[in-house]
Amino acid sequence: MKSLGHYVFVRHRQNWNLLFRFGLVGGSGVLINTLALILLKRTGPHFEDVFIDLPGTAFNIRWYHLFLMVSFLVANLWNFQLNRHFTFRSSKHSGWWREYAPFLAVGLVAQLIGLGLATLLMHPGSPISLPSTVLDNSTGLRTKLYWANLIVIAVTVPLSFVLNKLWTFSSVRGGVHPSLEEEEVAEERDGTAPAPTLVPGSEPDRAA
């Protein structure tokens, strides 16, 4: 059990550190996303009105699809800047557009999945439609669009984290995260680094 705990929490300390930082950035991104969505809802047409009819079909794009996309783009740029400088600290290792292009691509893939989920949550005929009796849009807390957006974010964030770590911020792939490397250097300088574990039958290195 001890070895399992060591493997999960010590050997993977870098991943836990990144996930914690990513979560902090994501939390601020949710706030930015929600504020942008509220602003669009209050200043734009009714979010359930038709924005564009899809020719030759019985389907259409509604204003809430556009609102969700715009609020996503605002939050996506916000999250990228913070992840680049705070979470992955890759600003010194790669160009801005070189990282933002895949970050945006990952976000768009997740957002397209999210728009499909949002449609199912908003459509009254959907089996997973949010209840209109409770979420009747009478107040902010009872606005169906806001709750649908939060559910979409909760579903798509884990996918975004995995794809961004493996692809977007390539400077952290296969290496030590810059912030953790700085911590290890500081520990060695201050003499607080943990003692190395000796393998049975081996001897510690001796100075020549």
Tally of DSSP helical segments: 6
Would you tell me the overall average pLDDT? 79
Spans with pLDDT under 50 lasting ≥5 residues?
171-180
Shape: elongated
SS-based structural class?
mainly alpha
* SSE succession: HHEEHHHH
Main beta-sheet annotation: 2 strands, antiparallel
Which band does the percent of strand residues land in? Answer: under 5%
Oligomer: single chain
Query: In percent, how helical is the residue content?
Result: 55-70%
Question: Care to count the β-strands?
Answer: 2
Q: Compute the gyration radius: what is it?
A: 23 Å
Question: Which strands sit side by side, in order, in the main sheet?
Answer: 1-2
How far apart, in Å, are the first and last alpha carbons? 39 Å
What's the domain count?
1
Account of the 3D structure:
With 208 residues, this protein is mostly helical. The chain has one domain. It is 63% helix and 3% strand. It has six helices and two strands; from the N terminus they run H-H-E-E-H-H-H-H. A two-stranded antiparallel sheet has the order 1-2. A hairpin with a 6-residue loop joins strand 1 and strand 2. Helix 2 runs antiparallel to helix 5. The longest helix is centred in the N-terminal third of the chain and has 31 residues. The protein is elongated, with a radius of gyration of 23 Å. About 5% of the residues have low confidence. Its main location: membrane. Belongs to the GtrA family. It is found in: Membrane. InterPro entries: GtrA_CellWall_Glycosyl, GtrA_DPMS_TM. It is a multi-pass membrane protein.
